[in-house]
């Protein structure tokens, strides 16, 4: 693959990966306006975020088998069409219940882009390059938290929140010709059964692999911190600290530097350390910082600047852990990479949707719910990693080296 083709391939895969995060981040500054427009509360509006995550999680399980049966592109085209139609529905929405349902449908369509891009990484690049490519995808993905909430804040302030979904629909349309340009990375497999029993069996074969469940679960619980931040930040910053929607967008963009920067520093660290060493260290720091944030929240010692600082540290840890945990969990798979990628995504998004519902349930005018859930999820992630790695007898490193008896 030439450098030019490599660049555009990674860029397109990154844009596909960023579609759903853009769909999440862009409408966050509009929460108060959406609540006012639809005669509801911001906590109820947050449920439309939860329904989106639930749709993403379910869609992961749907598209995995479809990508392995029909190839990568046909399910992707269908998913983008569903996403575009649901975006149009959200634009015309007049009540919160309909918005919650349409966001679910939008997620089911949009998640095809994320699953397909993750699977194509495994198709297109050698296993020893996967962690590097995942980190590059996060670099493109970083445009979402840097651009989306800021743009959403200005769009909402200048026009109204409905227009945000017009922009998202146009993004979906523009991705179609980009997908056409991508190479066909996997031939359809007519022998791959779409009957429930074989599909469940295929998922089970992946799930019971010690290397998969150890690093996928650890990475998913670590990633919960990001979902908690996304769901809780409108209430914390705009309700607790009284910042306006434009300032909120800039804060969100600034905090994303931690997540993006850490993912790129990871590429440098990979030259000297293994993926597991990096993930274990990052998780340890995430636990320590989250506990400090939680204790500080109990005693109310963190103001706006302190809260931003603690969240920044947490996002740095997640940005370092995620590409390594993803690469390690997918490393053992080749023929059923689509199934493994979809199960990995379902775990991350399933736990993420649960986290967002917890944030809505424990809604309060403090940082305590956010900090508490962050600390709990980070602690569970580290425990899963330390205990689970003992069951991995023959670990395939992200470098492609099999370490016996590890």
UniProtKB/TrEMBL annotation:
Transmembrane feature ranges: 45-64, 76-94, 100-121, 133-155, 161-182, 212-232, 247-270, 282-302, 368-387
* Subcellular locations according to the entry: Cell membrane
Q: Which UniProt keywords apply?
A: Cell membrane, Membrane, Transmembrane, Transmembrane helix, Transport
Entry's Pfam families?
Answer: MFS_1
- Reply yes or no: does the keyword Metal-binding apply: no
Tell me the domain of life. Answer: Bacteria
The record's annotation in PROSITE patterns points to: MFS
Major facilitator superfamily (MFS) profile domain sequence ranges = 9-396
Q: Topology in the membrane?
A: Multi-pass membrane protein
Q: Keyword check for Lipoprotein, yes or no.
A: no
Q: Which family does it belong to?
A: Belongs to the major facilitator superfamily. Bcr/CmlA family.
Its recorded name reads Multidrug effflux MFS transporter
Species of the source = Mucilaginibacter calamicampi
């Amino acid at each position: 693959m030439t450098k030019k083709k490599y660049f555009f391939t990674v860029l397109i895969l990154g844009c596909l990966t960023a579609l759903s995060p853009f769909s999440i981040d862009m409408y966050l500054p509009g929460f108060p306006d959406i609540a006012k427009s639809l005669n509801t509360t911001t906590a109820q509006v947050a449920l439309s975020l939860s329904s989106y995550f639930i749709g993403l999680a379910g869609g992961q399980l749907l598209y995995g088998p479809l990508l392995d049966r029909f190839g990568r592109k046909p399910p992707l085209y269908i998913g983008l069409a569903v996403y575009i139609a649901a975006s149009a529905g959200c634009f015309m929405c007049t009540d919160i219940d309909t918005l919650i349902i349409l966001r679910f449908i939008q997620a089911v369509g949009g998640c095809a882009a994320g699953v397909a891009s993750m699977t194509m990484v495994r198709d297109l690049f050698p296993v020893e390059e996967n962690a590097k490519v995942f980190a590059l995808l996060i670099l493109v993905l970083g445009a979402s938290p840097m651009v989306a909430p800021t743009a959403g804040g200005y769009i909402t302030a200048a026009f109204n929140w409905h227009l945000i979904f017009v922009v998202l629909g146009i993004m979906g349309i523009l991705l179609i010709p980009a997908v056409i340009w991508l190479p066909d990375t996997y031939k359809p497999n007519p022998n791959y059964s779409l009957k429930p029993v074989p599909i469940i069996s295929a998922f089970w074969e992946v799930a019971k692999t010690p290397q998969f469940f150890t690093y996928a679960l650890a990475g998913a619980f670590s990633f919960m911190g990001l979902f908690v931040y996304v769901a809780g930040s409108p209430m914390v910053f705009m309700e607790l600290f009284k910042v306006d929607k434009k300032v909120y967008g800039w804060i969100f963009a600034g905090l994303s530097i931690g997540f993006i920067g850490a993912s790129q520093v990871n590429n440098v660290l990979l030259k000297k350390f293994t993926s597991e060493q990096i993930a274990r260290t990052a998780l340890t720091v995430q636990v320590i910082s989250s506990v400090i944030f939680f204790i500080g929240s109990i005693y109310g010692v963190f103001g706006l600047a302190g809260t931003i600082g603690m969240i920044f540290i947490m996002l740095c840890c997640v940005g370092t852990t995620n590409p390594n945990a993803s690469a390690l969990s997918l490393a053992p798979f080749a023929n059923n990479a689509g199934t493994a990628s979809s199960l990995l995504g379902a775990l991350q998004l399933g736990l993420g949707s649960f986290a967002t519902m917890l944030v809505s349930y424990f809604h309060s005018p403090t940082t305590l719910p956010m900090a508490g859930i962050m600390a709990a999820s980070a602690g569970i992630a580290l425990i899963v990693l330390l205990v689970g790695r003992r069951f991995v007898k023959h670990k395939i490193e992200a470098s492609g080296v099999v370490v016996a008896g590890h």
